[in-house]
Structures are given as structure tokens and as C-alpha cells.
Design a protein that fits this description.
Helix content is about 30%, strand content about 25%. The protein contains ten helices and 20 strands. Strand 13 and strand 14 (about 320-325) form a beta hairpin.
């Protein structure tokens, strides 16, 4: 009789608990058992007050993001909540945050520091002030158990390109720091979808750096997987073979070219321009570039190399550009330019020069890049007067930028690239002396596990 009553009593406690948690599917929770509060304490009172205000603050925010600090030290409750950027129903965001606050107190009973994630929102509260930090080291990796069955290496590379694109979009989205995208693939796997998000209080550079930190571990955890996600308090991403978001994707990338291995060592085509692989580039009119560069005037010339000259230009909207004009009849220049187009069009990093577009008209072959006001590093480094302004702090930042760019192309991007012509004249500087590595015409593309290669001629610069 006693056992029967005890069984019934336990059921009364457990069944409502499970029913409440079913209202929101918890993806992951982290309970800090080292710090606990007691019933009816000041911290619990502050947490109760937070539970009544934070959902409303989240749903009323245009970015669906809120932070809070309730109560006095040492019983202050600090909190952060964020709903997914494609949430169009504000009340749904508020409901998700309310569920998170309730469930967090149940799955991590009496813990003073709890993080809990759902598909459409997440929350953290703590007695420690974490809301001013952009640290994203606490993260959870969730791979999809299924593997792709064909073109696995190409699929991984395509996912890397897509994640880099949506990460850039999220970082530059000044309101929600949210990006979505789709990339065409092949017949068996028609499309890949992805989303990326940062908390909206992050600066664009911080958001991009945060996303880079979790995108670079993609090959380690998600190689050949059909999907996966990394959950982090300050930034997160997800990719799947179906849309993991609502509405139309904000970006649409074309299918990646397969089996591309650019080469300028005499074992690849050097003269047939039409053999450039299928890459997505903006096409600019020759007349537009003639106006922008004042008909390629000598006064606008920035420099000249074996491939041809580079000119400064200004588009109608005021955007400043650098136009690389290939010398007509330069077969080697065509091969190098093709290599650069294939690689730079697929690379996106703050320390690599950004490709704006290309123009192929009337026997002209022109490539358009972002303009770097401080020109190349050699113009400062080897000038006795200008080099005086390069104190150690500036030099260290330049070294750091070069290293970050190389780290990306060597290990962190989905294309493993060896530059082969890194020199001061190929290190460009913006107005704040931030580094942009340029000129990938002599670069080689390695396979994923390749660590060395053999060339049949000397390349680079003495």
C-alpha cells in the first residue's frame, strides 16, 4: 500500500514536468552546478522579476534581442536572449523566451548560471556579468548523422563557401546580424541551405571574427555531413539539405565547379579564356570602366607588372575601385588571371582583397577589385620618410593581418591554397593600414590532406 501511494505521488510530480518541457524542444542546455541559489532568496526574487520582463523586452525589440540586469549585487541576475532572425511574429519570440526562462529553472534547478537553446531562440542568465563580453567559447556542436553519398569533397567545399557568404551577410546586416543562403549543388543533392547569426549588439568586425571562429572548425566536425550546426551565445550557424529558416534565402549562390585545380606550371590551358570555370562574378561594362578610370589615363595608373597595369577608378555611386588591365597577347597573364579569378571569387576573408567584378569586352580583359588607399606595403616600408610613421604597433598589426590571411588560405578556408608570391607589393593597405593580401595568380590549390607538391619550373619573385 505504501509503495502504491509512493508510485502515484512520483507520477504526479514528473508528468507535469515533462509536459511543460514539451512546449519547446530543448536543443541543448548547460547548467553550472557550482553556483546555486536557495528558495525564496533575493536571487530567486530577481529571477522571477526577470521572467516577467525579459520576454516582453525581447519581443518588442526590432532585432528580437534583449539584455538585462535585475537586482543589486551580489544577487543581480544578468540575462541575454535572442530569437532567430527570420522570426516575423514578435509574440512567438516572446513566448519562446518565456518558455526558456521557465524550462531553464526546471532542467537546471536552483543553478545561478544557465544557458538553454531552442531552434528559434536561446537564453542565458547568470549572477556574473557576462552581457558586456563577446566571448563565444561556450558552444555546442551538433552534426547531422547522415553522410553525403557523392562528391563528398566538393560538397564540403561548397558548404564552406556558402557559410562564408552567409557569415559575411550576417556581419554586414546592421540591424539583425542575420544571414541566410542557398547554394545549388548537383542532381542528387540539388541545394544546400545555411543560416548564420550574431547578437545584434556586436560590431561587424566582431561578428565576422566570431563566425570565422566557428566556421573554421566545420571540416573537423561536419566533413561529408548533410547538415550540422554550432550553437554559441554570441554567434551560431547551421547548414542543411532543406531550409532551416523561414522565408526566401537572402543569398543564392550558383553551383560550384567540380574538379577545379588551377595551375600555371605549364600543365594547364593558358590561352583559352572561355575555359574559366563556372564562378559567379559581377560583369561590368567597358564604357563604365573607361569613365571610371578617365579612359585609363596615366594619372590614374597605380602600378604596372608583367601582366599589365592597374588603374584607380571611381564608379558613378562614388565607390573607389582598382582595375587590373591585362596586356593584350599575354598568354601567361591570361593563365594567371584565370587562376586568380577562380580562387579569389571563392575566398572571403577580411585580410584578402575583395573581388568586385570582371569585364571581358572588345578584346579587353579587366578585373575590378576594392581600392586600397594606402596602396601596397612596399611603398611605405622601403620609403625612408614614410617608413618612419610605421611604429611597432602598426607593424605588429600588419604582421598580424598577413598571418591571419595566410592562416585562412592555408588551413581555414575550404580551398587549401599556397600563394607562392607573397611579397610587400602584394600586401595592400586600407586607410587604417589594415592588410589585404592580393595577387593569387601564381597560387596552387592543394587537396584536403595534401602537404607538398612538385613544380616543374621556378615561380614567384626574386
Amino acid at each position: 500500500m505504501i509503495s502504491h501511494k509512493l508510485c502515484c505521488y512520483v507520477s504526479i510530480l514528473v508528468v507535469p514536468f515533462l509536459a511543460q518541457l514539451a512546449s519547446g524542444d530543448v536543443l541543448w542546455q548547460e547548467c553550472d552546478n557550482s553556483r546555486n541559489y536557495t528558495a525564496n532568496s533575493a536571487f530567486q526574487s530577481n529571477l522571477k522579476q526577470l521572467s516577467s520582463t525579459l520576454p516582453t523586452e525581447s519581443s518588442s525589440s526590432p532585432t528580437l534581442f534583449a539584455t538585462a540586469a535585475v537586482g543589486a549585487i551580489p544577487d543581480t541576475v544578468y540575462a541575454l536572449s535572442l530569437c532567430r532572425g527570420d522570426t516575423t511574429n514578435a509574440s512567438a519570440c516572446g513566448d519562446c523566451v518565456a518558455n526558456a526562462l521557465r524550462d531553464a529553472q526546471q532542467v537546471c534547478s536552483y543553478n545561478m548560471d544557465v544557458t538553454i537553446y531552442y531552434d528559434t531562440c536561446y537564453l542565458r542568465f547568470s549572477n556574473q556579468n557576462f552581457v558586456t563580453s563577446i566571448d563565444n567559447t561556450k558552444r555546442h556542436i551538433m552534426p547531422n548523422g547522415e553522410n553525403v553519398t557523392s562528391l563528398a569533397a566538393t560538397f564540403d567545399a561548397a558548404v564552406g563557401v556558402l557559410l562564408a557568404a552567409v557569415a559575411d551577410y550576417a556581419a554586414l546586416n546592421s540591424s539583425k546580424r542575420f544571414g541566410t543562403g542557398v547554394e545549388d549543388f548537383d542532381v542528387s543533392t540539388p541545394r544546400v541551405y545555411a543560416l548564420a547569426q550574431c547578437t545584434p549588439d556586436m560590431a561587424p568586425a566582431d561578428c565576422r571574427s566570431c563566425l570565422e571562429g566557428i566556421v573554421r572548425v566545420m571540416p573537423k566536425h561536419f566533413s561529408r555531413r548533410q547538415g550540422g550546426r554550432i550553437l554559441g551565445l554570441r554567434c551560431n550557424y547551421r547548414f542543411e539539405l532543406y531550409p532551416p529558416f523561414s522565408g526566401n534565402p537572402l543569398l543564392h549562390l550558383p553551383a560550384p565547379s567540380s574538379g577545379v585545380k588551377p595551375s600555371v606550371d605549364g600543365d594547364g590551358d593558358s590561352g583559352n579564356w572561355e575555359s574559366v570555370p563556372n564562378i559567379s562574378l559581377s560583369m561590368l561594362n567597358l564604357s563604365t570602366l573607361e569613365v571610371a578610370t578617365e579612359n585609363f589615363s596615366e594619372g590614374n595608373k597605380l602600378g604596372e607588372g608583367g601582366f599589365g597595369a592597374v588603374y584607380k577608378g571611381s564608379l558613378a555611386d562614388g565607390q573607389e575601385i582598382a582595375v587590373k588591365r591585362l596586356s593584350q597577347g599575354s598568354a601567361q597573364g591570361i593563365a594567371e588571371l584565370k587562376t586568380e579569378l577562380v580562387l579569389v571569387a571563392k575566398l572571403q576573408h577580411k585580410n584578402l582583397v575583395r573581388l568586385i567584378g570582371v569585364c571581358l569586352e572588345e578584346h579587353e580583359k579587366l578585373v575590378i577589385y576594392e581600392y586600397m588607399p594606402k596602396r601596397s606595403l612596399d611603398t611605405i616600408l622601403f620609403d625612408p620618410e614614410r617608413s618612419k610613421h610605421l611604429d611597432w604597433g602598426k607593424r605588429f598589426n600588419i604582421i598580424n593581418g598577413i598571418a591571419r590571411g595566410l592562416q585562412y588560405v592555408h588551413e581555414d578556408s575550404q580551398l587549401k591554397i599556397i600563394h607562392r608570391d607573397l611579397k610587400a607589393s602584394n600586401v595592400l593597405l586600407d586607410s587604417d593600414l589594415n592588410v589585404k593580401i592580393s595577387d593569387f595568380g601564381l597560387a596552387r590549390l592543394f587537396e584536403g590532406d595534401q602537404s607538398k607538391d612538385v613544380t616543374n619550373r621556378v615561380v614567384g619573385t626574386l
